[in-house]
Automatic annotation (TrEMBL):
Pfam families hit by this protein: Globin
SUPFAM superfamilies reported for this sequence: Globin-like
Residues annotated as signal peptide: 1-17
Globin domain span: 20-166
Residues binding heme b, per UniProt: 116
InterPro entries (UniProt xref): Globin, Globin-like_sf, Globin/Proto, Haemoglobin_extracell, Mb-like_M
Protein name per UniProt: Extracellular globin
Family, similarity comment: Belongs to the globin family.
Entry GO MF terms: heme binding; iron ion binding; oxygen binding; oxygen carrier activity
Disulphide linkage map: 21-153
Record keywords, A-Z: Disulfide bond, Heme, Iron, Metal-binding, Oxygen transport, Signal, Transport
UniProt GO cellular component terms: extracellular region; hemoglobin complex
Length: 167
């Protein structure tokens, strides 16, 4: 019986460990993220970067635009869409900065997953596409971009945000 419990406990800890990136990867991502999201980075810089992310997302999946009508996606300059972009960028900033605090990160991801679960049409595939957009765009703005560390950290974040969604 104890052997069975030990095997189950080890399996659970391995399973949970796969939900987060390593401490070394988290440290790299947090440090590199500061290049694009430090307090010194102007809000306009974050807004411009966010617009580029959504522009690329909509180029890759034009139908995704329909999911953002409530934030006036047809006008990238509108206060509603700019507000949405800043919420997304701010949320990503918070998540990246909590990579080393897995309990808080898990709580944040559960909250974001519940918010996305009530949005009709939002799927896991949309988060996979967002990972591709980020992994394609970040090397253009982050010096010495470490694709392995970023992939190891972004994928668990996006998986956490899309938990419970359909494919």
């Amino acid at each position: 019986m104890y052997a069975t419990l030990l095997v189950l406990a080890c399996g659970l800890s391995v399973s949970l460990a796969n939900n987060h990136c390593s401490s070394a990867d988290a440290a790299i991502v947090i440090e590199q993220w500061q290049q694009v999201s430090s307090p010194d980075a102007a809000a306009q810089t974050k807004l411009t970067g966010g617009r580029a992310v959504f522009k690329k997302l909509f180029e890759m999946a034009p139908g995704a635009k329909a999911l953002f009508t409530r934030v006036n996606v047809d006008n990238f300059e509108s206060p509603e869409f700019n507000g949405h972009i800043m919420r997304v960028m701010g949320g990503l900033d918070v998540l990246v900065n909590y990579l080393e605090d897995t309990a808080t990160l898990d709580s944040l991801l559960a909250h974001l997953a519940s918010q996305h679960a009530v949005r009709a049409g939002v799927t896991k595939g949309a988060f996979e596409l967002m990972a591709k957009v980020l992994m394609g765009g970040l090397p253009k703005v982050v010096e010495n971009f470490n694709p392995d560390a970023w992939a190891n950290c972004i994928v668990p974040i996006l998986n956490g945000m899309s938990a419970g969604l359909s494919e």
